[in-house]
């Protein structure tokens, strides 16, 4: 009997279609599980959904749908890629930074504050410019580089008035002055760094796909070492580790647990490896 592979998705984008094609080429017909159709029976601890997957690759769009789906799938005895704990850590910049620090992964100096006054104190200690980031979110969304006191005060006062709980958490990070104007994204599958790319943003605080120039990056020993350490710190799996060059050193910034690859031209390289990794978990 063949292995039963599920793909949990919100909508079938290029990445999901690439995974489906890769699975079929490996002789596996994936069970497609739309988040609008899945039901979890809390008392019985089971999943009510077409098919009977042994392992599920999470490919949803919403972080909290992903997070709660993963913990409920695991509760039902289904293996997941990635795990709930990995998604919980990677989906929260504060938890990711804690994981980096506790595991001696190099990362920029970061301070957390919970009101405007203490945030301004943190900014003064870090010195301008300072990066202000949301606790959750990706693709550079709501990331701001605060270049001076007036800019910082204006942005923080605006956040302070928004009223949502997450806007009262100020995640502030030093700006690395020696960065060469590009980031590195290293793709880690299991215990191997399988690919790295340079990403050159066409806007200062955005890494959205439409604003990127992508160039192949050689897998140097330093990139492999830091990327593997970062991936291990958050729990491992199928991950994209974002790195920044700081002079001759590398620092880890964050880790993505639902990796995007088709828009970067990497579908043929990465999709088969992801499927193989998922099947190996059964």
SSE blueprint and pairings:
Elements: E1 5-9, H1 14-25, E2 31-34, E3 39-41, E4 46-48, E5 55-59, H2 63-75, E6 79-81, H3 84-90, H4 93-102, E7 110-113, H5 116-126, E8 130-133, E9 144-146, H6 149-162, E10 170-174, E11 183-189, E12 192-201, E13 212-216, H7 221-234, E14 238-246, E15 249-256, H8 267-280
Parallel strand pairs: 1-2, 1-5, 5-6
Antiparallel strand pairs: 3-4, 7-10, 8-9, 8-10, 11-12, 11-14, 12-13, 14-15
GO cellular component, one term: cytoplasm
Protein name: RimK family alpha-L-glutamate ligase
Domain ATP-grasp: 97-281
Structural class by secondary-structure content: alpha+beta
Output the strand order for the largest sheet: 13-12-11-14-15
Round the mean pLDDT to the nearest integer and report it.
92
Strand content: 25-35%
Instruction: Please outline the major beta sheet.
Output: 5 strands, antiparallel
Strand and helix order? EHEEEEHEHHEHEEHEEEEHEEH
Instruction: Enter the CATH topology name of the largest domain.
Output: Rossmann fold
| Overall number of domains | 3
Uncertain runs are: none
Tally the helices.
8
User: What is the general shape?
Assistant: globular
* Subunit arrangement of the protein: single chain
| N-C termini distance | 13 Å
Rg for CA atoms: 20 Å
How many extended strands? 15
Examine the secondary-structure arrangement and name the CATH architecture of the largest domain. 3-Layer(aba) Sandwich
Task: Name the helicity range.
Answer: 25-40%
The CATH class label of the largest domain is Alpha Beta
């Amino acid at each position: 009997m063949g292995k039963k592979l599920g793909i949990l998705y919100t909508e079938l984008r290029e990445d999901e279609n690439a995974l489906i094609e890769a699975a079929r080429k490996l002789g596996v017909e994936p069970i497609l599980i739309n988040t609008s159709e899945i039901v979890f029976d809390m008392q019985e601890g089971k999943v009510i959904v077409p098919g009977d997957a042994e392992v599920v690759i999470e490919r949803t769009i919403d972080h909290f749908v992903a997070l709660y789906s993963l913990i409920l799938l695991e509760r039902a005895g289904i293996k997941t890629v990635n795990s709930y704990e990995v998604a919980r850590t990677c989906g929260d910049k504060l938890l990711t930074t804690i994981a980096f620090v506790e595991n001696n992964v190099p990362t920029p100096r970061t301070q957390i504050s919970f009101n405007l006054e203490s945030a301004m104190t943190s900014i003064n200690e870090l010195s301008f410019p300072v990066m202000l980031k949301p606790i959750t979110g990706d693709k550079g969304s709501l990331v701001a580089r605060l270049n001076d006191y007036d800019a910082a005060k204006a942005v923080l006062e605006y956040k302070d008035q928004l009223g949502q709980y997450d806007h009262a958490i100020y995640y502030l990070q030093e700006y690395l002055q020696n960065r060469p104007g590009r980031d590195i994204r290293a793709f880690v599958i299991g215990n191997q760094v399988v690919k790295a790319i340079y990403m050159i943003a066409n806007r200062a605080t955005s890494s959205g796909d439409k604003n990127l120039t992508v160039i192949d990056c050689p897998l140097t020993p330093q990139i492999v070492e830091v990327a593997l350490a970062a991936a291990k710190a958050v729990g491992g799996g199928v991950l994209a580790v974002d790195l920044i060059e700081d002079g001759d050193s590398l620092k880890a910034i964050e880790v993505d647990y639902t990796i995007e690859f088709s828009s970067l031209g990497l579908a043929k390289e990465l999709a088969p490896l992801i499927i193989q990794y998922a099947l190996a978990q059964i």
